[in-house]
């Protein structure tokens, strides 16, 4: 098997031991030509080389049959995943495409990109925050969607951990409004974008995503077929991760990583968008779908691979230490979840147990606490709602004055700087 050609990966690690950091350098400079494990084929794309696997082809005929001639609504349309998804959908001949986002300027720009393919009368723009129930209801009433894809939310782990009330407002309250509106207005299918951090969550972000999945499961039995998808860390245009990394490497700046052993699942933005379409087509009873992304990729290895692609193999790396809620490695399924094969060989699903009794009442209390900005009460209610949520409370890593935010907050933010 051909090996991935490597230059000697020179880098200068700067170690800052902490509670979860190493007491001595656990990484060494590799010798030239030293093997680093199985390498992708030589003809693999640059993104495949970074991920250590081939990109999965998704959203084929099933996606076209699902979308063609139907009215589609996308929340968080200007985010990395939302925008890529809209660009896929516009080529599938929808009857109408409603773009929902709270960023008016970016929304208008995205609308212009859509009208390059679709007639202007088929594109609707809604500058709306999904955490406002009445506004969401008005949009659904006007757009009359048949398919809803909910990608809006707060996805920066560190920010959500620091301000749990804001994370719950965006990720739980917003999702609740979209789920309720989907049922009220007779939407045929609704897909919620979750995260691999929802599997046995240790962070507030993961807990809010898990609650979003529970909201879809609690709404089954009506006119709407629900599904959720757990995505990994998204790379590739128009994502910000590689742009940030390229800038730091080419400018000879320090690349900050949380921990030398941190590893994450990576997927391309095209895979993430395609997974949404596949999930909508495959859903039967509020399953949660996951793309087979292989083993988690060590973030330090991804940095080396990308530096070599840029022909700048000398990288200075600093380890900041894991922060609150962060794991060394994510997983796509909880230990208690049973994996189910689907019609696509690279997509797995799970059907979790029914939501706990008393969920609506506890959700009401949680949303009230979030609206009131009571972060301590929010954390307490999250633990009551989710027995599988085991928060990891660490001190936030100390940064040097003017220091960079870690390239990968908890490895890598799902969508830096957020959807």
TrEMBL record:
<feature type="compositionally biased region" description="Basic residues">
    <location>
        <begin position="1"/>
        <end position="10"/>
    </location>
</feature>
<feature type="compositionally biased region" description="Basic and acidic residues">
    <location>
        <begin position="392"/>
        <end position="402"/>
    </location>
</feature>
<feature type="region of interest" description="Disordered">
    <location>
        <begin position="1"/>
        <end position="45"/>
    </location>
</feature>
<feature type="domain" description="Polysaccharide biosynthesis protein CapD-like">
    <location>
        <begin position="72"/>
        <end position="350"/>
    </location>
</feature>
<dbReference type="Pfam" id="PF02719">
    <property type="entry name" value="Polysacc_synt_2"/>
</dbReference>
<dbReference type="InterPro" id="IPR036291">
    <property type="entry name" value="NAD(P)-bd_dom_sf"/>
</dbReference>
<protein>
    <recommendedName>
        <fullName>Polysaccharide biosynthesis protein CapD-like domain-containing protein</fullName>
    </recommendedName>
</protein>
<comment type="similarity">
    <text>Belongs to the polysaccharide synthase family.</text>
</comment>
<dbReference type="InterPro" id="IPR003869">
    <property type="entry name" value="Polysac_CapD-like"/>
</dbReference>
<dbReference type="InterPro" id="IPR051203">
    <property type="entry name" value="Polysaccharide_Synthase-Rel"/>
</dbReference>
<feature type="region of interest" description="Disordered">
    <location>
        <begin position="392"/>
        <end position="419"/>
    </location>
</feature>
């Amino acid at each position: 098997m051909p090996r991935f050609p490597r230059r000697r990966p020179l880098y200068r690690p700067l170690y800052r031991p902490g509670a979860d950091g190493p007491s001595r350098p656990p990484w060494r400079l590799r010798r030239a030509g030293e093997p680093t494990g199985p390498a992708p084929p030589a003809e693999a794309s640059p993104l495949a080389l970074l991920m250590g696997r081939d990109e999965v082809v998704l959203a084929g005929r099933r996606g076209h049959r699902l979308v063609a001639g139907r009215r589609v609504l996308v929340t968080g349309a200007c985010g990395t995943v939302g925008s890529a998804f809209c660009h896929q959908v516009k080529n599938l001949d929808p009857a109408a495409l409603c773009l929902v986002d709270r960023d008016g300027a970016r929304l208008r720009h995205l609308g212009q990109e859509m009208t390059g393919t679709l007639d202007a009368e088929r594109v609707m723009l809604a500058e709306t925050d999904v955490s406002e129930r009445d506004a969401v209801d008005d949009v659904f009433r006007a757009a009359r969607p048949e398919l809803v894809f909910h990608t809006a939310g707060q996805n920066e782990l560190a920010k959500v951990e620091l301000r749990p009330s804001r994370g719950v407002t965006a990720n739980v309250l917003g999702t609740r409004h979209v789920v309720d509106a989907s049922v009220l207005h007779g939407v045929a299918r609704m897909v919620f974008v979750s995260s691999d951090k929802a599997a046995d969550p240790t962070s507030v972000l993961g807990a809010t995503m898990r609650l979003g999945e529970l909201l879809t499961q609690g709404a089954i039995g009506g006119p709407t077929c629900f599904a959720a998808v757990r995505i990994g860390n998204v790379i590739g245009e128009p994502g910000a991760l590689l742009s940030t990394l390229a800038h730091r490497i080419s400018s000879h700046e320090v690349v900050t990583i949380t921990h030398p052993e941190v590893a994450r699942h990576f997927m391309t933005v095209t895979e993430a968008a395609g997974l949404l379409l596949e999930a909508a087509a495959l859903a039967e009873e509020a399953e949660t779908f996951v793309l087979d992304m292989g083993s988690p990729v060590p973030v330090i290895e991804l940095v080396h691979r990308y530096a070599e692609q840029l022909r700048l193999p000398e990288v200075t790396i600093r380890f900041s230490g894991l922060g609150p809620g962060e794991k060394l490695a994510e997983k796509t399924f909880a230990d208690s979840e049973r994996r189910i094969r689907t019609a696509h060989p690279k997509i797995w699903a799970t059907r979790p147990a029914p939501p706990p009794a008393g969920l609506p009442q506890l959700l009401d209390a949680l949303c009230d606490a979030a609206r009131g900005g009571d972060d301590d009460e929010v954390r307490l209610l999250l633990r009551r709602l989710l027995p599988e949520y085991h928060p990891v409370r660490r001190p936030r890593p100390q940064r040097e004055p003017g220091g960079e935010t870690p390239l990968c907050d908890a490895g890598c933010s799902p969508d830096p700087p957020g959807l």
